[in-house]
Amino acid sequence: MEKLSKDQIEVLYELRHHEYLILSKEDSTMQFQFSLHVNNQRNLLSGSSKFIFYLFVFSYMFFPLLIVPAFSLIFHDWFLLIGIIISYVSTVLTTRKIRFQFVGLLVPMVIYWFMKGFHMDDYITFYYLCAFWGGFFYLMAVSYEESAAKRILLNDEKLFNKLSIAGDIFFMRKKLD
């Protein structure tokens, strides 16, 4: 849904699966969200969707512990290990919705790379890429978890109805004028 103010959004509760499908066909702004108290989206994942989610989690949690030391060894520069900390700080900032490293620093970094060249052993470049890595893969994991859980719910009518009645999911659409 495009950015709308709260007074432009209608919130609906306890819709059944078939009601949601009908309303979403009639109104393209209709969508459902997980309630804030629900943190079990991950429990809905199974099989390949769970594997892909954990691959993203591995990418932002453990990959820096493997790759950054490898780069430190390759370039014989232990100051590059600071990239591990930067990656985790970036992930924490991203969880707090502080995403300045993606857009705010990209333009200065491109200018810097244009002037100095792109070198992985350059501290500024390496630390920026570590920050980008942590935040990017965290966002990918969270986004994938939510979209996969929604896809699973749309395919399971009983579970959809159960979560809707319990208030674990709610529905939003643009208010009709």
- Count of helix runs: 9
Indicate the proportion of strand residues: 5-15%
What general form does the structure show?
elongated
- Separation of the first and last Cα atoms: 17 Å
Element string (H = helix, E = strand): EHEHHHHHHHHE
Fraction of helical residues: 55-70%
Rg over CA atoms: 21 Å
Summarize the biggest pleated sheet: 3 strands, antiparallel
Number of strands: 3
Q: Quickly count the domains.
A: 1
Overall average residue pLDDT: 85
- The residue ranges in which pLDDT falls below 50 over 5 or more consecutive positions are none
Classify the secondary structure makeup into a structural class: mainly alpha
Largest sheet strand order: 1-3-2
Write a structural description.
Strands 1-3-2 form a three-stranded antiparallel β-sheet. The mean pLDDT is 85. Helix 3 runs antiparallel to helix 8 and helix 5 crosses helix 8. It has one domain. It is built from nine helices and three strands. The longest helix is centred in the last third of the chain and has 33 residues. The radius of gyration is 21 Å and the shape is elongated. It is mostly helical and 177 residues long. The chain starts with 8 loop residues before the first strand and ends with a strand.
